[in-house]
Amino acid sequence: MGQRFGTNTIDLEALREFCEHEGKKVIITMMLAFVAMATAAQKKVSWKPFLKAVEFSEKYFVDTIHVKVENGAVIVPVEIAGQERHLLFDTGAEHGFWAGNQENWMKPLSIDSVKASDINGKKEKIAISQIPEIKMGGLRISNYPVHVGGHLGNYICGLFDGLIGFDLVSKGLSIKLDTKDSLLILTDRKGFFDEETKGQPTVKYWLASESYPLVNVDFPFGSANMSFDTGAIGHGIELSQQALTYWLKKGKKKQSAIEAVTVLKDTTFNASFGIFGFDADTLIENILHLPSVQMSSLTIKDAYASTANKVKHIGSALLKHASLIIDGPKKHYVFLPHDGTSSITLNDKDAHSQNFVPSDSTGMLRAVIRKGSAAYEKGIRTGDYLIEVEGIPIDDLCTFTAIRSRKKPGEETHFVFRSPDGTEKRVVIARTE
């Protein structure tokens, strides 16, 4: 018995058996992973001709837009074809993406002719279209290319309609994501943010391909080139087991450094939501407690990194604690920590320690709980059904997401779970991210 997400079928009976296996420690990481989503086709097909067609309605401009900030992610209200839409600003995506279907106001450039792969390595043909005009504040962006399609809309639950990729920076814009006051400031003026960025933590990025930015990060056991990905909503530092294995092979000194910061070794169930559907893998995971990580002159303190990933990135969790200026001409990320220091303290020990996965075709959710988490300590176990949240019956992922989004970090939520043997569990758990 399987449920279809896009072109991928998941054996949910096997998943249930895995989740219920006595003594098995299981973790799920539900990743809105845009870093591969809108960009994977670029290795074979150049987007440069499409990007050349993009035009701005103004020159030498500065514009300020009120935005929504969700878990550090910046969601920008825009007008397209007379309707208000919402686009995620994603530093981890090279180009634009539209989460829904082809719409009649889009100008098709390529229909089902370009192959793309998502974060799970699943490949499909995609459509490339232009959005004739995006009204973003007082600025009009013409002929913006987007990758259209996929099944991600099933998982983002209406939070946004698509995303703006890093290509707008490559076209000459500098952008401030003011996550403290929920503002986006964009300009084509060189040096506009110079006064504001003096003395602030600055991170040099470089473009690994047409417009894909990477940064260097220094860990206690080595350095890595990573994406700073504002599209990885709520995520902090994510490593891959492959990267950790590479460092472990570098000798006893590296091994000792890794062992010193490892707080959990586990067999892990990792579930990734990619553009072409849901994927599930049994992986080996290490949870690393990193007292200090250096990203150029920015210090990231008290971070917990999981290695149950296929990519290495740092997500939008940083922007819960700092605003960001992207200086396009200088290729700089400049961080403005909300507390006025030169560092960001994540303190994200419980991030992604309590998650949920659809259990069958009815959409009911079952918990996947990390051992030692707040939910685990209160008696919730992997495989328990989520029945109610705040008195509201839960029968699908988006209902739960809508209720959860109204809660602030630290705010308590009332849950009702039911174990496979029928035992009802009523618990109160604070939101951790």
Describe this structure in words.
With 433 residues, the chain is mainly beta. It has 10 helices and 33 strands. The strands form 6 sheets. Strands 4, 6, 7, 8, 9, 10, 11, 12 and 13 form a 9-stranded mixed sheet that branches. A 6-stranded antiparallel sheet has the order 5-15-14-25-26-16, with no helix packed on it. Strands 28, 29, 30, 31, 32 and 33 form a 6-stranded antiparallel sheet that branches. The two termini are 34 Å apart. The relative contact order is 0.16. Keywords: Hydrolase, Protease. This is Aspartyl protease.
Figure out the total of helices: 10
Beta content comes to over 45%
CATH H-level name of the domain at 35-204... which superfamily?
A: Acid Proteases
Helix/strand-derived class? mainly beta
How many β strands by DSSP?
33
User: Overall mean pLDDT score?
Assistant: 82
**What would you say the CATH architecture of the domain at 35-204 is?**
Beta Barrel
Q: Report the CATH C-level class of the domain at 35-204.
A: Mainly Beta
Low-confidence stretches: 1-44
Alpha-carbon Rg, integer: 21 Å
Binned, the helix content reads 10-25%
